[in-house]
Structure to design on (424 residues):
């Protein structure tokens, strides 16, 4: 029996974040146990994110023209499951690296495609985006706690078994999604013309889109050291896997509060302020974490995850919903995930892995704080340039205006009218 959109996407988020809740804090420990150095872990983790930069937009552009998005979601989820399962067989180092990159790339493509589908369902009134996503964060908390206890008792290899199971659950849920979930706007959505490649490229001619990409990408990318090396850092301080799971859980509980209750604030203050709040929090959070403060201070700093992740995430989704034409939403969301977040996180992970040490993590975390500082400046630029509506190329000079093949001085992203319902 097919699932309703609300139940189906809730279960899909749960499955995805059961995977992520173990992969982020604990999988690097398994890689380390199998012989990967800190530098190698940084290269593998960063490599998967850079691969998202190269292939993620292609996958998203292909998805725009699919009548049934279960197909692309199923293919990506199956690839994630197969690569995770093969890690269980025991492989040479180069094979583990390739499988890890494939698995993490697949997950990185699956999430923005899911986000876009859920955003469309939200507009159609079949679910609440923030609350649906909050169930995923709840699953992340469960994975942190249960996974931490399991791994503390059985060893880091349990993380791979857990991830393979979560990937299989994602695939099963996708098969059960109703066909109509591919487009929440129903009949109206089916009339949206597939985007032209030139339309997608012209997203990059919008100052507002580029500033949002920079601000959100740098803020989310500033989690690089935390995602890749926090287990090594905190283990060196004597924290066990169970305590590390609790620390991650504190951050995610704070995240859930924003996702579940933050929508009225988002509607009131808008996406730019939400992104800016996260950027400022990143500027504060990461250098202080790098100083290895006492545990009570670490607990307090973990609550800033409500801003460094959740407000930026909601602000980004809201910006895409308000500013990007309907037939470019998959592309816009994936560009944020791959270029704005994936590439920046990948580069930051690789660079920080070159000089990160568990004994002295401050230089790496200070770099993350600097990324937050630059993101604050980008947010101020976004505040100035974006007018709150559908983005335009904003070329701002007469030569470009007269050279526009449509004779449109404003430089609309789409060359042909696209049926866009009133935005909420």
């Amino acid at each position: 029996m097919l699932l309703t959109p609300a139940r189906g996407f809730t279960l899909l988020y749960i499955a995805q974040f059961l995977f992520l809740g173990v992969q982020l804090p604990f999988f690097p420990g398994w890689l380390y146990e199998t012989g990967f150095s800190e530098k190698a872990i940084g290269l593998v983790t960063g490599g998967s994110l850079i691969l998202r930069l190269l292939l993620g937009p292609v996958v998203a552009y292909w998805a725009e023209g699919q009548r049934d998005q279960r197909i692309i979601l199923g293919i990506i989820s199956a690839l994630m499951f197969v690569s995770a399962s093969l890690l269980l067989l025991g492989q040479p180092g180069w094979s583990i690296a390739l499988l890890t990159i494939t698995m993490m790339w697949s997950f990185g493509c699956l999430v923005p495609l899911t986000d876009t589908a859920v955003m469309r369902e939200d507009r159609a009134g079949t679910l609440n985006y923030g609350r649906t996503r909050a169930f995923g964060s709840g699953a992340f908390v469960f994975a942190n706690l249960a996974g931490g206890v399991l791994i503390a008792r059985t060893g880091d290899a349990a993380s791979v078994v857990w991830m393979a199971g979560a990937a299989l659950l994602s695939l099963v849920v996708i098969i059960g999604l109703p066909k109509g979930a591919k487009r929440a706007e129903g009949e109206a959505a089916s009339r949206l013309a597939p985007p032209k490649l030139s339309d997608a490229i012209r997203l990059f001619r919008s100052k507002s889109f580029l500033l949002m990409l920079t601000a959100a990408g740098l803020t989310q990318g500033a989690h690089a050291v935390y995602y890749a090396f926090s287990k090594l850092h905190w283990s060196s301080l004597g924290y066990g896997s169970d305590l590390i799971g609790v620390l991650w859980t504190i951050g995610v509980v704070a995240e859930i509060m924003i996702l579940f209750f933050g929508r009225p604030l988002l509607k009131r203050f808008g996406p730019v302020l939400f992104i800016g709040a996260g950027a400022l929090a990143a500027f504060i959070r990461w250098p202080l974490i790098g100083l290895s403060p006492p545990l009570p201070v670490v607990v307090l700093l973990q609550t800033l995850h409500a801003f460094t992740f959740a407000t930026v995430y909601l602000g980004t989704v809201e910006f895409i919903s308000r500013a990007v034409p309907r037939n470019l939403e998959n592309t816009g969301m994936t560009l944020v995930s791959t270029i704005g977040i994936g590439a920046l996180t990948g580069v930051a992970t690789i660079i920080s892995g070159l000089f990160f040490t568990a004994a002295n993590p401050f230089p790496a975390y200070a770099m993350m704080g600097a990324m937050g500082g630059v993101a604050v400046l980008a947010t101020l630029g976004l505040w100035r340039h974006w007018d709150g509506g559908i983005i335009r190329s904003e070329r701002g000079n007469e030569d470009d205006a007269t050279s526009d093949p449509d004779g449109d001085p404003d430089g609309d992203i789409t060359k042909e009218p696209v049926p866009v319902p009133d935005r909420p």
